[in-house]
Model the fold of this input.
Amino acid sequence: MNMQQMIEQGKAYLLETYSQVPVVFSGGKGCTLTDVEGKEYMDFVGGIAVNALGYGDKGLTKALTDVLESGLIHCSNLYYNEHAIDAAKAICTLSEMDKVFFCNSGAEANEAALKLSRKFGHRSSPARTEIITMKDSFHGRTYGSVTATGQTKYHQNFDPLPQGFRYAQFNAIESVKSLITDKTCAILVEPIQGEGGVVPASKAFLQGLRELCDEHDLLLIYDEVQCGMGRSGKPFAWQLYEVKPDVLTLAKALAGGVPCGAMLTNKKASSILGPGDHASTFGGNALAMAGVNEMAHRLGETSLCKEVTEKGAYLREKLEKIRKKYPTKCTAVRGFGLMNGLVLTIPPRQVVDACFAKGLLVLSAGSDVLRFVPPLVISKEEIDRAMAIVDEVFAGLG
Ligand code: PLP
Done:
């Protein structure tokens, strides 16, 4: 089968919930992906902030291969497996949290946090069930997490949605304050909004949320599914802001590309859920846990995070140059570490497609942002090459 035939077979059998780019990838090395015809693409998408170690990473490959060779890919949470025990310690230590519940995705991690919040509220009153989330946020596609997502476009045609969600303006503490009532049990926020357009929270906003949660005895939940795992230049974005949550949700890069999610809790939140309250068949799966262990090791014990900070600053410098060169098309650069956005006045899709044609993968965020979330191991030389392509694309747009 050639690539076109493969795509046709894909279209015939895969439910079309994505508008997929017409390319079939078959392998990768470092930050380069190769399609089935041998064409190479520089990857500034990283599986949407998943493939933190790039492709073919030796350490990750060995960690996963060792599990496969042991014969134990999966047992069940009815029993312990050594990889989950190690991963739990490693991720709690790295994030400075107390305990962890493992699941399989970001949406599931947020579902766990929503259930935990409701049970936390129920402890003081059955009416304490409301969760405040932010406009333009993104928390996933399951019913709870999509309702928590503060973007109506994701809600349309799926009602009735679960009740008990209120939406505040992001980075506006008075807006959050005005929604707090006797019914509120938790506040959920992305420290750096991803899908909404790569918008960092201000430190004052997170500090304000922390104070409100302490004052009203609410749980503060950070969704670090996209901005966690080294992406911000610290292992976790909360460490960048130095404002700690009660609950932290993770996924994407958590296991270096193996499906995995997690909800972490501090002392205040660690004893709310008990046996039988929540579960996941695959959560804590040995293969995924080996990925978590490798990621935690790389983020905690190597210079990876420091390099992310340096390379992120380098990338933003280059993006600033592009913004200044094309001021009618680009209006702002924002982000932390290797999670960055270039705000456009033209549809991002146009730029994404033109970059793709030149062998560079980038993606959009929100309605007007070009998003750059490359593997954390990207080099300055690769950043230079990618920025030269972006420059060429803007020049070609006239
Ligand atoms: N939360 C955030 C901040 C995300 O960016 C995403 C996915 O993009 C999710 C949750 C949902 O994660 P998943 O697709 O693994 O369910």
